[in-house]
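2024-03-11 09:14:02 INFO receiving multi-entity request
2024-03-11 09:14:02 INFO entity count = two
2024-03-11 09:14:03 INFO echoing inputs for audit
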Amino acid sequence: MQNKNPKPIGIFDSGIGGLTVVKEIKRFLPGEDLVYFGDTARAPYGIKSSDTVKIYASEITSFLIKQNVKMIVVACNTVSSLALEYLRKKFSSIPIIGVVEPGVRAAINSNKNKRIGIIGTVATINSHTYENLLLKKDPSLKIFEKPCPLFVSLVEEGWESHKVAELVAEEYLSYLKKSKIDTLVLGCTHYPLLKPVISKVMGDSIKLVDSAEETAILIKEIILKNNLSEKKQRKGKITCWLSDRSLFFIKAAERLLDQNIRILQKRF
Amino acid sequence: MQNKNPKPIGIFDSGIGGLTVVKEIKRFLPGEDLVYFGDTARAPYGIKSSDTVKIYASEITSFLIKQNVKMIVVACNTVSSLALEYLRKKFSSIPIIGVVEPGVRAAINSNKNKRIGIIGTVATINSHTYENLLLKKDPSLKIFEKPCPLFVSLVEEGWESHKVAELVAEEYLSYLKKSKIDTLVLGCTHYPLLKPVISKVMGDSIKLVDSAEETAILIKEIILKNNLSEKKQRKGKITCWLSDRSLFFIKAAERLLDQNIRILQKRF
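2024-03-11 09:21:47 INFO inference complete, emitting structure
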């Protein structure tokens, strides 16, 4: 079969969160080469202003385009919420996929009772991007939003199973428990790592939507539709660029992804 | 009396932590004008590498020198631990004061049983700067160190008095409780805001050393010794430069400092 497009897929996040998206892309598209950028020198993004997030995302997108990628995946809910339209206008020659639209699609598919919860960083929740996109698809929905800033710190401390994580989850999620939602969107790429504790607090009947899987499915659709597929038999390579050398990132990548990764550094 | 040196004092931190130092400087030197820089676009520093912290600190020091300051106060334990000597060599024309040396002086003065604990960010603790400086002053000391990364997130979430803060403190401090220290250095400018919970967990008999006050005393000594004093009768002005406009910073500054502050923005 013809080798359609051997260029890599570009992916970025402020730090390690986007690795949950990388994992799903490798599951659905194992032959594709990936170039990942983690902005560890300026992470986290979730407490920063929309202007600053746009500047950082724009620098990284330019850099990935120079790495000759065939598409860009914004594997960060904060950037997807605050800067996706801005990036698409500025870099119109390349497909740019965010994690919010796939998350919205998955939430609509899962939801039955018209009540959907969204959790994310302060910047993501304050942007109301999830709420606006959901209501555009179905104005009869009732949306309940809650920022959960400590969740990222808990994951970065490796305390996903600690009793502190449960206490924090109880505090943040009590409002959503009362709201009678049947679907909760994990609107931050760190949160899938907290699924067990979120599920314990919310109850098993609440469907947790993790946009990583849905994003990988969408990428596969776009790649097949546009003949961008690599069609290699071998396992695709992963190259990681970091703005700050971070042992924590390297350990998390080794834990999450079952393959060797080339790590390089690029400062802005 | 002659007006000796009307130039402002320059102070910087990655974000809001350094405001605890500003508060003490205003108490000891109320007439001095202050120019503060908070690197909110790249905060926090405590998880970043020494190389990256040096680059950021160097950019900010250059910027403050251009603001015509008479001295620089590094109101951040991470920068003071990782980059103070580097900054002093690079900017040798201006006095540069960190928070670690005053913290060490206060710890030695407070300690009786030769056992001292240090808590701080991962970067501060991994640098062992506190330990090295303490042992240089008194090689017979026993030093016990523990990084407490979630403390910063708890303060930034405003959860200083929340039961989560107590549970996190119990987890982090259990090692130090067993170590029979009589003095605990709060080696991060955010931590003084957690004094009540740290004191509750450690017990009233443990002296908590907050380097903010000791730093202000040292600055006053240097200013008097070098005839740098402003000697104004009026209340000194505070100008705050932020790399990212942050409502959270502005609210914290209003809460901590009892005066109007001019807020400006500077990106690197």
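2024-03-11 09:21:48 INFO post-check: Chain B has two domains: 9-98+213-265, 100-211.
2024-03-11 09:21:48 INFO post-check: The beta strands of chain B are 9-13, 34-38, 71-74, 96-97, 115-120, 142-147, 183-187, 207-210, 238-242, 262-265.
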